[in-house]
Amino acid sequence: MGVTVAVCPHGGLFLAGAFSCGPRWRCWEDWDELELVSQHHLVPVDGRAARVRMRRFPRRPPLPLLPVALRLFFRTADVESPSAITDAAKVVEGKLNGMGLNLLINNAGIYTPTASLETVDAEDMVRTYKTNAVGPMLMAQAFLPLLKKAAQDSKEKGLSCSKAAIINISTILGSIKKTPDSFFHPVISYRCSKAALNMLTMCQALTYKEAGILCVALHPGWVKTEMGTQEADLTVDTSVRGLLSVLPILSEKHSGTLLNWEGKAIPW
């Protein structure tokens, strides 16, 4: 699955994921909230339709309206391709001019709504796992040196998003304990891949703690998007503003946990 990322050449916030619809694309407009996390920003766009979004980009709010420090660089990578991810990391490293990367948000994901236990096949299971679990792992591996650099250069104590963090966008559907509450919608391949992502988040938290890197999984909620449908509970704005309000308050006590858009803990 393709993903287009954008990075400020002067360091700071870095997001990676598919943003064609839903709360992730809406983040582009919420600059004030992003300032709570870092003085540096970037804009995410949809990797699956990167050319379309790139053509539309000039019609978004003009750059002069954004913070003066903002400079954008777009890079497209395929999260299913280790070499593409490695290449993207090298390019981003060059754009950062010796600075570290404070925040990596892994959001690329795919979803098969009709995947029940009776209908899901091996191909769908493997494809979904590669994108939703293996992809975030490879992204973290590739950008780990830059995250470590940011943590080493930071004067902040403890763990935080403004120091160095990996945020994996997960879902309550990946919670084993909460499965009975939502199993009316099986989506087997999606659930299993997100459960794997949750485990990855915990493993990252335990491994990267000594390097000063915060690792958290976030559930954006059931949002009124193409994926969530209009039957969902949350509007895009509610989800996005919730997620952006959670990022600045994340600390060491949250590392290795799954939280929702309101900052409430979700059991594994």
UniProtKB/TrEMBL annotation:
An annotated GO cellular component: cytoplasm
Taxonomic lineage from the root: Eukaryota, Metazoa, Chordata, Craniata, Vertebrata
Family affiliation: Belongs to the short-chain dehydrogenases/reductases (SDR) family.
InterPro entries xrefs: Fungal_SecMetab_SDRs, NAD(P)-bd_dom_sf, SDR_fam
Protein's UniProt name: C-factor-like
Gene from which this protein is expressed: LOC103816689
GO molecular function, one term: oxidoreductase activity
Organism: Serinus canaria (Island canary)
